[in-house]
Design goal:
Blueprint (H helix, E strand, L loop, with lengths): L1 E4 L3 H13 L3 E4 L4 E4 L3 H9 L6 E4 L2 H8 L13 E3 L3 H9 L7 E2 L10 H8 L8 E7 L5 H8 L3 E11 L5 H12 L4 E5 L2 H11 L9 E4 L2 H10 L3 E4 L4 H12 L2
Helix pairs in contact: 3-4, 8-9
């Protein structure tokens, strides 16, 4: 069974390498395109004011990568500014890019999910009245965490560090898609975003019958969207690497 990794291209390549190293037949089939933000100056201004923030929330690895792509040369992360991450993938990149471990806030390692709700469980006990918070994300996105921070008294600004775009499959990716559609039992779709499922539906067409297809989803909302599209089998798993590999052992190597 081939595992189709549908994350944006950069993260898809990393996961394909990891899965192949563990003996899986994995291939990247990105279903979300990532483009630079329309307002690059806003990101430069955010870096200039970074030391005045009590907290910067990064909603995804893409938010980190695109924000740090415009970091002024020689600029270190300010020690007085916390950086919040919803899960281990985002945390890993923040650490790689020089954010001190002591500045990081993230969900507990045993959290049921790695998402805004689990991150808020760690942030909620802290004093937010009058605090200046920046939420770095793509264009649009959920406002759930923004609303919680504002409700706690924080002054919250959102910043679009990148734009999401529909996928533009090349010839190799189109061949992977066609093969998965022709032999659904030989493919396992790994979804880490509901938007990726929407893009897949748009690529294939609403009339396609997904009942023989199988999916791995890293959040209940994503699993619900896969079910809604018509996937016959949907396995739900936390996005932590150990959990994903354990799930694949069960699904691919029963």
């Amino acid at each position: 069974m081939r595992v189709l990794v549908t994350r944006p291209a950069a993260q898809a390549r990393e996961w394909v390498e990891r899965l192949r190293a563990h003996g899986y037949d994995a291939a990247a089939l990105p279903l979300i395109g990532i483009e630079p933000a329309a307002d690059a100056q806003a990101l430069r201004d955010a870096w200039a004011a970074l030391g005045t923030r009590q907290l910067v929330v990064f909603v995804s690895p893409n938010a980190v990568e695109q924000f740090f792509a415009l970091r002024p040369a020689g600029t270190a992360w300010p020690e007085q500014t916390r950086a919040a991450s919803p899960g281990p993938g985002t945390t890993r990149i923040l650490l790689q890019l020089g954010v001190p471990r002591g500045c990081l806030v993230e969900p507990a390692a045993d959290a049921a999910q790695f998402d805004s709700e689990s991150l808020w469980a760690e942030l909620a006990p802290l004093p937010w009245q009058g605090a200046r918070v920046l939420v770095v994300r793509g264009d649009g996105g959920r406002d759930w965490l923004v609303e919680r921070l504002r409700g706690a008294g924080a002054e919250v600004q959102t910043l679009a560090a990148y734009r999401r775009a529909p996928p533009r499959p090349d010839a190799v990716e189109r061949a992977l898609l066609d093969a998965a559609l022709a032999a659904p039992q030989a493919a396992l779709w790994w979804f880490s975003s509901s938007e990726a499922i929407d893009h897949l539906s748009a690529l294939v067409g609403a009339a396609h019958d997904w009942r023989a297809a199988r999916a791995l989803a890293t959040h209940p909302r994503i699993a619900a969207r896969a079910h809604a599209l018509g996937f016959g089998t949907v396995h739900e798993v936390r996005p932590a690497a150990a959990d994903v590999l354990q799930a694949l052992d069960t699904i691919v190597r029963p």
